[in-house]
C-alpha cells in the first residue's frame, strides 16, 4: 500500500489560528510564514522543513574533550543495525531554536556556545543539592555508544550513534528522596551564547521532564557525544537528553540544571501548545498531530517514506511503562 501522508506545512510545530507579531524578524530569517503560534501573547515558533537552506555549512572539528574517557559496552539489544544517518546530516539538520529557526542555523551559529567549563546544578528532592562540574560527572561513568532511532514530531527521523551514560545512573547517584516523582532538565539561559533567547518564540529557558520510571529506564541517555566524539553545539553540547521512544522535542539540549520534583513540571512545548505537544510525547503512529499524520516518516538522507512504528520500534522495552494509560488521551 502506498502511504499518502498529509504533509504538514512548513511551519510545523506551531498551532494554527494564531497570529504573527514578529513578521519582520521571521522574514529576515528567511522563513515561510504560514501558521504561527502565540505563546503568552507574543509570537511564535516555527518548524521549517520547507525553508530553503544554504547547503554549505561546515562543522568544525576541534580538540575532543572526551578523548581518553573510559568506554563501556552498551546493552546489546538496544542498538539498531539500520544504516546510520551520515555525520554531515546529523550535524547540519537540527532543531535548536536558541541558535536559529532554520535547520542549518544551529550549525552556523553554534560557535557562540561555550561548553567548557560547564556546571550542572542538581537540586530538589535529592540528598545533597549542589553544583557539579561536568568533567567531574563524566569521571563517574564510562561512556557507552548507543545507536538509536530518533524521530522528530515533524515526521522526519534519523539513526544516530550517541555517546553518553544512562540518566538513571546519575539520578541514582544523586540519591533521590521518596518524594521525587519527576526529573526536570533545563537548557542554559544566556542570550549572549544562545541569541535566539532574545526572541520570545518560546518560553525560555527550554525545559523538559520525565516521569521517574521513564528517567530510570536503561534506554534513557544523557548524551555527551555522537559519532565517537564530543557533541557539536548544534546537537546540544555539552550534555543533552536522548529518549529514543519519544518525539525529539523531549531531548532538551545544553543542560545546566537537573531537579527532582514531586509536582508535575511544566515543560516548554507543552506549555506553548498543550493541544499539540503532550507531556508524554511517545512516538505513536495512531495519534496524529492536529495538523498532520504521524503514521509515517521521512528518514533523512533517504527518499520516500516509511511507516512509523509505535514507540519508534522500542515498544518491547517501554510499552509496559504505559500499561495503565490511554495513550490517545495522554499523548
Ligand atoms: N532543546 C533546546 N534547548 N532547544 C530546542 O529548540 N529542539 C528539540 C530538541 N531539543 C530543541 C531542543 C527538537 S524539536 C528536536 S527534534 C531535537 O532537539 C533535535 O535534535 P538534533 O538537532 O540533535 O537532531
Features:
single chain; five-stranded mixed beta sheet; 21% strand; eight-stranded mixed beta sheet; disordered N terminus; 12% helix; globular; 8 helices; 331 residues; binds ligand MTE; alpha+beta; Sulfite Oxidase, Chain A, domain 2
Summarize the structure.
By secondary structure, this protein is α+β, with helices and mostly antiparallel strands. 12% of the residues lie in helices and 21% in strands.
- Amino- and carboxy-terminal Cα gap: 27 Å
| Arithmetic mean pLDDT | 87
Give the second-level CATH assignment, the architecture. Answer: Alpha-Beta Complex
User: What is the helical fraction, as a range of percent?
Assistant: 10-25%
User: What is the percentage of strand-forming residues?
Assistant: 15-25%
Helical stretch tally: 8
Q: Can you summarize the main beta sheet?
A: 8 strands, mixed
How would the blueprint of this fold be written?
Blueprint (H helix, E strand, L loop, with lengths): L22 H6 L9 E2 L2 E2 L27 E2 L14 H4 L14 H5 L9 E6 L5 E4 H5 L4 E9 L4 E11 H7 L8 E6 L19 E5 H5 L4 E6 L2 E2 L9 E3 L12 E7 L6 H5 L23 E4 L6 E2 L7 H4 L13
Parallel strand pairs: 3-6, 4-13, 7-14
Antiparallel strand pairs: 1-2, 4-5, 6-7, 7-10, 8-9, 8-13, 10-11, 10-12, 14-15
The protein binds ligand MTE.
Ligand MTE binds next to loops.
